[in-house]
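Aim 2 progress update. The chain analyzed this quarter is reproduced below.
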Amino acid sequence: MPVGKPKYKRILLKLSGEALMGRKRFGIDRSVLARVSHQIKRISAQGVEVAIVVGGGNFWRGTGSEAKGMDRATADYAGMLATVINALALQDSLESEGLTTRTQSAILMQAVAEPYIRRRAIRHLEKKRVVILAGGTGNPYMTTDTAAALRAVEIGAEILLVAKNRVDGVYDTDPLKNPQAKKFERLTHKDALNLHLQVMDSTAFSLCLDNKLPIIIFDLQAKESIERAISGEHVGTFVASEEEKR
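Predicted structure tokens:
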């Protein structure tokens, strides 16, 4: 099915570790990487500048380890290393599609990634390279959702795309547990904060609110979901300020 012309010139895509698992229980589903890479190749060919923040929950969840008695900061640093694993796998998949990529990490991993430098990341985007951002913010107690919102603001992205695994938007309760959950087609940032919705953390929503950065939260597994989202087609849940129109 043909997808419309992209509405945005520069985007930041947040890929959670869970989304990269697909239907597996652990690790990376290579077919998911292939689908994502193929879509990114097509949107890059249309002039869209793409930055990607990767999570690490398919290998490690810091909050779960903390609950089992591990020091929270140590658990979070381990999670940052998991995001680097995902970044390298994604880099390999994108390059197999013929795309030029650069992986940057907020924690120093010089053998496999550049350090994250905002101006360098922007320059890579201007040169039509896909930039993969690993290591979260480089700080414990900060989620990769917060990293995605922060990096999107820093690089001047026009939209933050948040790809979920088998959840097609924002609901009032967990739709995987409650079949009666109500889906929101559109929300404001303030609504998301006031309703204490768990789809992203409050720090990430607050950053987007303060900087008037719109968000689309959608199911990565849906057909051509990334391309459809950036073309302006209704996909998932759209979160923006009151005056923002989709």
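The radius of gyration is 17 Å. The chain has one domain: 10-240. These observations will guide the mutagenesis experiments scheduled for the next reporting period.
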